[in-house]
């Protein structure tokens, strides 16, 4: 069996991340507003005669064996396929690693969907989502392919049909933040009552009005540079700023591409940092 496909796995930002309570299973009950952005990893999958999975990526921090979430995704689909086939996966990482942008989860979701098509496995989106949830809490969102309110551990998704296209200026200071470390250091003293959120957003101002991330204070305490970045972005004219996920990426919201690029041009950041203007998708 042969064939190949080149795919693009988009990053995400969290416009909202509420940690409501700690669950008996050790996970946390969440409510998030998530949006995909036009910053993508590139994944090429090819089938060949033989058996087994090979994964290659030039990024120095990316494991190329069964520790990798993409390898695990391929193994899950291969198990559903039920026949021996060789799978070769080549990844190009454009999304910063450990940055709160969901790169690994998106790569896994994209691999699940791509192999389902390539192998003709015939799994429904619901079945793929069930597999994805075993791999990571953010994986179902990328299979959903829509801006969404995500609840539970990220598995209950409701579409946000009315949200404007925005331009985001991303700034990542090259700090790798462990999501598990952030949750372990989250001071959740009691169950939080979730404020009611609108499902209709007409402007950047509407989106900025709900920007909030319960994980941000935890990461800020250890890495105060994140607050400095936020202050710089606001001074440069951003409508709002927030750390995405567990960090360390900060995004600034703008209504237009020109405003976002003008802000980037006016700011001085370390040349080793990752900075990019991207639209939401």
Give the helix/strand layout:
Elements: E1 3-22, E2 28-48, E3 52-57, H1 69-81, E4 86-92, H2 103-119, H3 125-135, H4 139-144, E5 148-152, E6 156-159, E7 167-172, H5 179-184, H6 204-208, E8 212-213, H7 216-222, H8 225-235, E9 240-243, E10 250-254, H9 257-266, E11 274-279
Parallel strand pairs: 1-8, 3-4
Antiparallel strand pairs: 1-2, 2-4, 2-5, 5-6, 7-10, 7-11, 9-10
CATH class of the largest domain: Alpha Beta
Number of domains: 2
Structural class: alpha+beta
Average of per-residue pLDDT values: 94
Globally, the shape reads: globular
Summed up, the helix count is 9
Show unreliable segments: none
Cα-based radius of gyration, to the nearest Å: 19 Å
Question: First CA to last CA: what distance?
Answer: 34 Å
Helix content class: 25-40%
The CATH topology annotation of the largest domain reads as Ribosomal Protein S5, domain 2
Which CATH-level-2 architecture of the largest domain?
2-Layer Sandwich
Biggest beta sheet attributes: 7 strands, mixed
Classify the beta-strand content into a percent band.
25-35%
The count of β-strands is: 11
- SSE arrangement, N to C: EEEHEHHHEEEHHEHHEEHE
């Amino acid at each position: 069996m042969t064939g190949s496909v080149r795919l693009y796995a988009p990053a995400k930002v969290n416009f909202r991340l509420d940690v409501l309570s700690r669950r008996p299973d050790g996970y946390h009950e969440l409510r998030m507003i998530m949006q995909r952005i036009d910053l993508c990893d590139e994944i090429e999958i090819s089938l060949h005669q033989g058996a087994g999975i090979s994964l290659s990526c030039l990024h120095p921090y990316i494991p190329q064996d069964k520790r990798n979430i993409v390898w695990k995704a391929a193994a899950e689909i291969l198990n559903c396929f039920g026949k021996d086939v060789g799978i070769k996966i080549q990844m190009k990482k454009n999304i910063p690693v450990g940055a709160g942008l969901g790169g690994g989860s998106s790569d896994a979701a994209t691999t699940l969907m791509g192999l389902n098509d390539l192998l003709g496995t015939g799994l429904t989106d619901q079945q793929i989502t069930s597999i994805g949830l075993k791999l990571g809490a953010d994986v179902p969102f990328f299979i959903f392919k829509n801006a969404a309110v995500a609840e539970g551990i990220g598995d209950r998704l409701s579409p946000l049909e009315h949200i404007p296209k925005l331009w985001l200026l991303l700034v990542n200071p090259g700090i790798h933040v462990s999501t598990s470390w952030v949750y372990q250091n989250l001071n959740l003293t009691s169950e939080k009552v979730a404020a009611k959120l609108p499902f209709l957003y007409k402007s950047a101002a509407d989106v900025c009005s709900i920007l909030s991330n319960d994980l941000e204070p935890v990461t800020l305490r250890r890495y105060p540079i994140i607050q400095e970045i936020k202050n710089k972005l606001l001074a440069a004219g951003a409508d709002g700023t927030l750390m995405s996920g567990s960090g360390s990426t900060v995004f600034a919201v703008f209504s237009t591409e020109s405003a976002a690029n003008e802000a980037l041009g006016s700011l001085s950041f370390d040349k080793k940092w990752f900075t990019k203007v991207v639209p939401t998708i």
